[in-house]
């Protein structure tokens, strides 16, 4: 028989009971724990159209730079599945973070901080990148230092990153298999309800390749539908012709129109020295489309916005232009903004 509790022990027990009541009370006022299955996504019965007809100046550029592999051609049902996966917070360990948390539609699939928060509030080591026009990066290599060989290979890395989403591939597959809305979406996209990480990566990449901007003022000018102001025209001229300080290459020599993206970053080199591509202290740049509205630029996120770039705040060389042309350059860069991609419902969060 256990000895009955001494008065002193009873006092302790009472204290414990009070404490646990108090803790329970606190808990009830906290946020409810994340349920295993949140709301189902709202997706149209027939998938949206992601196979948009692009204007000629963009279609021509795409023909020479498209990184779509023959085993993962873009389909409407593939991109529609990719959209759901992209915004699904169940793809992170504590179900709080999705790809869309750090690549927000309203922020041109970038975010508005220098470093982003992962599922446990830890910060990423580099600035998030805009996903606009990733399809036009000819080499297909992804991340600032190009460490992912393809968009498909890239897609599984944030999911397994211990700071970002924190799952293993096996956990990822089990999560997706456990959610009731996926079998029908996989059936439509891949002709089978079987889930595996390769298909998850393919669908995510299809959605990302559909993020193409072609409805900016720049595009309307190139189609002969509108004209540049004098400042915008001068800005374009400087962008295309003037060597960017120090080097012999113009802005356009590195950020190639019409998507203002290139696949062969020859530099510039970052200060302070950092490993970068092949350990050579150089970094890629994504598409400059929508850069006029984006916050925190360059791989360290040290430049708050494009206006600050020409204020002597240059973390890398080759970003220097004569003072009288600063306003013209900004006017030109602002013509690259496509407002529709940040609002188009087919790219929006279906869980909202
Ligand atoms: C916690 C924030 C965070 C989450 C979540 C996240 N990303 Fe990112 N993403 C980043 C950061 C930061 C970078 C740049 C990292 C680097 O280069 O080291 C990046 C880079 C990328 C790139 C490279 C773009 C380029 O032009 O090279 C792609 C593509 C991408 N993310 C897609 C995704 C996908 C798909 C998901 C979901 C499966 C995702 N991201 C989840 C923060 C995040
Ligand atoms: C030698 C090639 C080169 C030249 C010339 C060059 N850039 Fe860049 N640019 C880059 C690279 C590479 C990065 C990313 C570097 C990094 O983050 O460390 C970049 C980054 C940028 C960014 C930030 C992009 C982002 O997503 O954060 C802007 C804006 C930009 N460049 C505009 C310009 C303008 C305007 C000019 C002309 C005055 C110019 N660049 C000249 C290679 C170049």
UniProtKB/TrEMBL annotation:
Compartment annotation: Cell envelope
The keyword Iron-sulfur is assigned to this record: no
InterPro entries noted in UniProt: Cyt_c-like_dom, Cyt_c-like_dom_sf, Cytochrome_c_Peroxidase/MauG, Di-haem_cyt_c_peroxidsae
Source organism phylogeny: Bacteria, Pseudomonadati, Bacteroidota, Cytophagia, Cytophagales
Keyword Metal-binding: yes
Protein name, per record: Cytochrome-c peroxidase
Superkingdom of the source species: Bacteria
Pfam families noted in UniProt: CCP_MauG
Gene Ontology MF, one: metal ion binding
Record keywords: Heme, Iron, Metal-binding, Oxidoreductase, Peroxidase, Signal
Domain Cytochrome c per the UniProt entry, residue ranges: 230-337
Gene Ontology cellular component terms for the protein in this record: cell envelope
Principal cellular location given in the protein's record: other
């Amino acid at each position: 028989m256990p000895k009955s509790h001494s008065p002193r022990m009873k006092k302790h027990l009472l204290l414990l009971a009070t404490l646990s009541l108090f803790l329970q009370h606190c808990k009830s006022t906290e946020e409810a724990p994340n349920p295993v299955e949140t709301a189902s996504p709202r997706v149209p019965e027939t998938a949206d159209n992601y196979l948009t007809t692009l204007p000629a100046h963009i279609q021509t550029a795409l023909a020479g730079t498209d990184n779509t592999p023959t085993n993962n051609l873009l389909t409407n049902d593939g991109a529609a599945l990719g959209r759901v996966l992209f915004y699904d917070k169940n793809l992170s360990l504590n179900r709080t973070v999705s790809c869309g948390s750090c690549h927000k539609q309203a922020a041109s699939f970038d975010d508005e901080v220098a470093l982003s928060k992962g599922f446990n509030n830890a910060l990423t080591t580099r600035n998030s990148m805009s996903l606009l026009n990733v399809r036009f990066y000819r080499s297909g290599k992804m991340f600032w230092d190009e460490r992912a060989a393809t968009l498909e290979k890239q897609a599984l890395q944030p999911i397994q990153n211990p700071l970002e989403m924190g799952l293993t591939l096996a956990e990822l597959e089990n999560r997706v298999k456990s959610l009731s809305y996926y079998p029908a979406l996989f059936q439509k996209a891949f002709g089978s309800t079987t889930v595996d990480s390769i298909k998850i990566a393919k669908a995510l990449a299809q959605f990302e390749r559909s993020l193409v901007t072609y409805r900016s003022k720049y595009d309307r000018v190139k189609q002969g539908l509108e004209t540049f102001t004098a400042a915008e025209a001068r800005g374009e001229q400087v962008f295309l012709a003037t060597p960017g300080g120090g080097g012999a290459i113009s802005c356009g020599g590195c950020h190639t129109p019409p998507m203002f993206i290139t696949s062969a970053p020859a530099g510039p080199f970052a200060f302070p020295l950092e490993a970068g591509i092949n350990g050579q202290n150089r970094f890629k740049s994504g598409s400059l489309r929508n850069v006029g509205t984006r916050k925190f630029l360059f791989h360290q996120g040290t430049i708050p916005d494009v206006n600050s770039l020409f204020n002597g705040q240059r973390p890398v060389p080759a970003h220097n232009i004569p003072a009288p042309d600063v306003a013209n350059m900004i006017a030109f860069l602002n013509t690259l903004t496509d407002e529709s991609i940040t609002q188009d419902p087919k790219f929006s969060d279906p869980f909202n």
